[in-house]
Amino acid sequence: MIDRIDRRILSILQEDCTIPVAEIGRRVGLSTTPCWRRIQKLEEDGVIQRRVAILDPKKVNVKVTAFVAITTSRHNDDWLRKFADVISEFPEVIEFYRMAGQVDYLLRVAVPDIEAYDAFYKRLIAKIDISDVSTSFAMEQIKSTSQLPLSYVQTEKPRAERDDQ
Amino acid sequence: MIDRIDRRILSILQEDCTIPVAEIGRRVGLSTTPCWRRIQKLEEDGVIQRRVAILDPKKVNVKVTAFVAITTSRHNDDWLRKFADVISEFPEVIEFYRMAGQVDYLLRVAVPDIEAYDAFYKRLIAKIDISDVSTSFAMEQIKSTSQLPLSYVQTEKPRAERDDQ
DNA sequence: ACTGAAAGTGCTCTCAC
DNA sequence: GTGAGAGCACTTTCAGT
Questions:
Q1: Architecture of the CATH domain A1-54
Q2: How far: B155 CA to D17 C1' (Å)?
Q3: What residues does each domain of chain B span?
Q4: How many residue contacts between A and B have a Cβ separation below 8 Å?
Q5: pLDDT band at residue A75 using 50, 70 and 90 as cut-offs
Q6: Which of residues 37-76 of B touch A (CB under 8 A)?
Q7: How confident is residue B74, by pLDDT bands cut at 50, 70 and 90?
Q8: How far is CA B40 from CA A157, B45, B151, in A?
């Protein structure tokens, strides 16, 4: 389905999606047409979901990252759906996971400072009844990337190599 | 520095950076040229850091997200720098924070499954001596976005509004 | 399946206002 | 800030390998 050339294309586009197709082709050893068709297919197949601009958190005044661990006292499905919807609506919530283990849910929240987090927190609990919440703040963002590892992609060997065996 | 129109432009580009400048201009009530110039400036100023393709984690076979909480037994600066470098090198590490509070460091790791996490973990501890590690797995990704909240941006009021006052 | 060429389109970016 | 225009990159097709 995805071969090594596709993987290299994905790697390039994950890094910078403004590179012209002709240049991508050159880098992966393909001419423009097949390279363009591969990219088109990767988009059709949903491997490439979207192309977006990445902003500098500091420049848009969200310097503080908070991790919010939520433990709920077991509610029914309806409540959980409402819970998920309400929380997802907050633009400050960048990531939202249902967890295995002690903690039930984990949020990553982007805000300017601790006071803003407090205000966010108040708006959150005003909208939804949460029993147990524990917040940790990040002091420093050492790494944060939109690039997923591509080493685990199920690669189909290129035809040439397959025929060799 | 950044006014409301810039903010709307950023909001659009955070969502989809393939939209033509003319269309962005139309949406924010500007003709192509000034809109293009604003985008150019936002890039120069580093507000827009890059433009990237966002891939579907499932399609590239990283279905499991692990959060790794690391507690170190207080090392010196050199060790900490090496620690940061070694961990940052792993492409599976998508996010890496230095934390306040109980936990010293928090990683978000993307892997195909629990076995792959275990292999990753072995490679990690083989490279660096970590005393106390605690891993939690996400069962479900309810929300995950590259879009930062723009409500906190320091906005300079547009000239017209300022003059009105 | 990829190459290369080539036509058509639409966008980028500059310039004059 | 507007509007127009030149140049260019991208898209898409087609014949050929």
A1: Orthogonal Bundle (1.10)
A2: 59
A3: 1-54, 57-137
A4: 229
A5: confident
A6: 45-57, 59-62, 65, 67
A7: confident
A8: 41, 9, 22
**Same fold yes or no, A1-54 and A57-137:** no
- Note the pTM of the prediction, 2 decimals: 0.93
Residue A161 pLDDT more than 80? no
Q: What is the pLDDT of residue B36?
A: 96
- CATH code of domain A57-137: 3.30.70.920
Residue of higher predicted confidence among A164 and A88:
A88
Q: B104 vs chain A: nearest CA distance in angstroms?
A: 9
C-alpha B56/C-alpha A46 separation (Å) is: 7
Nearest to B144 by CA among A144, A140, A10: A144
Instruction: Kindly list the residues from chain A whose CB atom is less than 8 angstroms away from the CB atom of residue B96.
Output: 141-144
Report how far apart, in Å, the C-alpha atoms of B64 and of each of A91, B29, B96, B117, B140 are: 24, 43, 17, 8, 9
Bases along strand D below 7 A from a protein CB: 1-5, 9-14
